[in-house]
Design a protein that fits this description.
Chain A has 221 residues and is of the alpha/beta class. Chain A has eight helices and nine strands. By secondary structure, chain B is an alpha/beta fold. Classes of the chains: A alpha/beta (221), B alpha/beta (254).
């Protein structure tokens, strides 16, 4: 019995929470989309780092009754990593892709430039800023050296946002990118493992306050 | 002898012989073996000891995050010289830090050059400790996080093994380790890859602890096994453990 608001309260200021999709069928990625919906409806500002095709995201959001276009460019900005690497430009307000030649190192420097620019343009208070990834494990399919690139992405985030203290929610599927598992644990203040236990989809807090508490992910609300 | 900073370990396997090499093998991230190492590190720091931290795996700001989570203000500890950080990760990737107390290794880094560069930096920081009369009444501890990441930095198994074995020989003769007091060292190894390199590290260590985590119907189970000590132990000792707000709670299984 843990409502989303209570889960989010576990994350300290400037803190990081990871939701691990340990069993694919636990649909831990959908749990993060419910969190995203909750944040957007509350009027919080969200930067979504998208490592999957944009259409995968919008399809899954529609299934939980969220039309992203209502929020895009208002309190939601999507940074389309998948589209940037695969050169898929799209004309949707609030969805950003990087253009030009791209490799692991160039990606990092371009992201930095882009993020600094966006932050300068938008006056967002740090305590109302959230960073959400969908899903970080995508780095394994998008970069040549995923572990090193991911470490650099985290370092860049620290450099750019040190005065903003945003909270971060990482979505992570270990089967798709096992090499990230240890750094994802290391950087997190809170980790939720999602699994199917006795036919129920549950989250188990494996790091942070309320350690080892188990709760149902999709109870009627 | 020095304490593990975990009562059950002091009681069941005895305190650590000074100047030992302790290897913690975190088999999977879920077991959070690294947090056992951080618990020991931060407890030693809070008791006013001298700490050398070898940052091999992560960008430095992430290490600072982890230290703060354990109630340590890294900037203050570095300022006050109790904590020294050797930023191997940053040195290999050309990320230079200007923070006081953080050392960067200069020039070409390879299995041949790294042992000497480490020794020079350690000698330099120990001379700072000597100038400030900080050895008196304090123990020295080294923490290497994580040894398994040398495989990433060197990019090959042979080079990593050569470095690890050469470094032991350099340490035995270099003035950094002879002129000044020595420390007790903790190494972390993460994951199950490269059992051949792990075997060499295992052989070198005086103590080896392994951590393992499982998800069960009742939640998380975590186990710590004592695989090696300097004693001739007839049996393997195994504990269950939990992370609590005020530390780590171990209970012996057998």
């Amino acid at each position: 019995m843990l409502p989303i608001g209570d889960i989010l309260d576990l994350i300290p200021e400037n803190g990081v929470m990871t939701v691990v999709q340990r069993d694919l069928e636990a649909n831990g990625d959908r749990y993060v989309l419910l969190i995203l919906k909750y944040l957007l409806k509350k009027g919080e500002h969200v930067f979504l780092f998208l490592y999957e095709p944009y259409t995968f995201l919008t399809r899954n959001l529609r299934n939980i009754g969220l039309n992203v276009e209502e929020y895009l460019d208002r309190n939601l900005i999507i940074f389309d990593v998948f589209g940037s690497i695969n050169k898929i430009e799209k004309d949707v307000k609030g969805v950003y892709t990087l253009s030009g030649y791209m490799d692991d190192v160039i990606f990092i420097s371009k992201v930095k430039e882009w993020a600094e620019g966006v932050l300068k343009k938008r006056e967002v208070k740090g305590n109302r800023l959230w960073i959400v990834t969908y899903l970080s494990s995508g780095v394994c399919k998008l970069f040549h050296n995923p572990l090193y690139t991911y470490k650099m992405i985290l370092l860049t985030k620290e450099d750019i946002l040190k005065e903003k203290s945003p909270r971060t929610i990482i979505t992570y599927s270990p089967v798709e990118c096992p090499i990230l598992e240890d750094i994802v644990y290391f950087v997190s203040d809170v980790v939720i493992e999602t699994k199917v236990i006795k036919g129920k989809r549950v989250g188990i807090i494996s790091k942070g306050p309320e350690e080892n508490v188990m709760f149902e992910l999709f109870e009627e609300r | 002898m020095v304490s593990w900073e975990i009562k059950a370990l002091d009681r069941e396997i005895g305190e650590i012989k000074k100047y030992s090499l302790v290897l913690i093998h975190q088999e999977d991230p879920l077991s959070r073996g690294i947090d056992i190492l951080y618990h020991i590190l931060t407890a030693k720091l809070k008791k006013d000891n001298l700490i050398g931290y070898f940052n091999i795996s992560y960008p430095l700001p992430l290490v600072f995050r982890a230290l703060r989570r354990f109630g340590i203000d890294p900037t203050k500890e570095l300022e006050e010289l109790r904590l020294a950080i050797i930023d191997t990760f940053g040195s290999f990737h050309g990320i230079r830090s200007t923070i006081k107390g953080v050392w960067t290794l200069e020039g070409m880094l390879s299995s041949e050059t790294l042992p000497i560069k480490y020794a020079q930096v350690i000698e330099a920081h120990k001379s700072v400790w000597a100038e400030n009369n900080m050895f008196e009444g304090r123990d020295i501890y080294g923490f290497a996080v994580a040894i398994s990441s040398y495989l990433e930095l060197f990019g090959s198994l042979e080079e990593t093994l050569r470095y690890l074995e050469l470094s032991s020989e350099v340490r035995a003769v270099h003035p950094a380790y002879k002129k000044y007091p020595r420390g007790t060292n903790f190494w972390l190894w993460m994951g199950k890859d490269h059992p051949d390199v792990f075997a060499s590290v295992y052989r070198r260590a005086d103590y080896v602890l392994r951590t393992r985590g499982y998800l069960t119907e009742d939640g998380i189970k975590r186990e710590l096994t004592v695989l090696k000590t300097p004693e001739l132990e007839k049996e393997v000792i195994k504990f269950e453990y939990e992370f609590k707000r005020d530390g780590i709670k171990l209970s012996k299984i057998y």
